[in-house]
Amino acid sequence: MSRARAxxxxxxxxxxxxTACSPGTGSxxxxxxxxxxxxxxxxVPAPKPITKELPQAHLTQALLxxxxxxPGWTLHGDKSVTEGQYCNGASDADSAPAGWIRGxxxxxxxxxxxxxxxxIHICLFRSADxxxxxxxxxxxxxxxxxxxxxxxxxxxxxxxxxxxxSEDSVHGYVRSGKATIEVRVEGGxxxxxxGTQAMLVATLKRLQQLQDGHPATATASEEQAAARQ
Length: 229
Known about the structure:
This protein is α+β, with helices and mostly antiparallel strands and 229 residues long. The chain is 28% helix and 23% strand. Strands 1, 2, 3, 4, 5, 6, 7 and 8 form an eight-stranded antiparallel beta sheet that branches. Strand 6 and strand 7 form a beta hairpin. Helix 2 packs antiparallel against helix 4 and helix 4 crosses helix 5. The longest helix has 19 residues, at 3-21. It is globular, with a radius of gyration of 31 Å.
């Protein structure tokens, strides 16, 4: 074999070795790793029931203030500390229900008038069973007037349209863990209970935010808008 031919064969063998070591067109590409833009959105955690014995200050913060409720509604007076008997289902109760710890309440007037009023009560109990018993007493027995909201909230949630002898009011009740919330909207609301539901949802979300160590930022207007989407 001539020297020139041996040199050519050596060069060709080296080129073939280099080609085998580099990724060729016939070799499958490695599976791509996750890219920032391809990562699935993190699942939004489900709201947690109220399980902590929240302090009075948290109950007060959870109550909706001016600019946090529905348009036209403003605080009537100040947010208050709820006395135990007001967490009973009976209007003439003179004692707190079993297991009651503390509560908060607020009232609202519409466009500066007390002709139409709204009310929020928050009651905190020692156990979920205590809260459930009180929730059942609150919502009453007028099953023909009770509605399950289209988007339920909390562990138990009921709207009662025109309870008792009323003709233009909606009362809403929710239980979440050891807490119960009542919202009463009186005056021209019987045809649209969405405002009562929005106030319930916002108040509960504020409690949940505070329980998780965050500021109370939920508003009734935002909740009503989201429910209509």
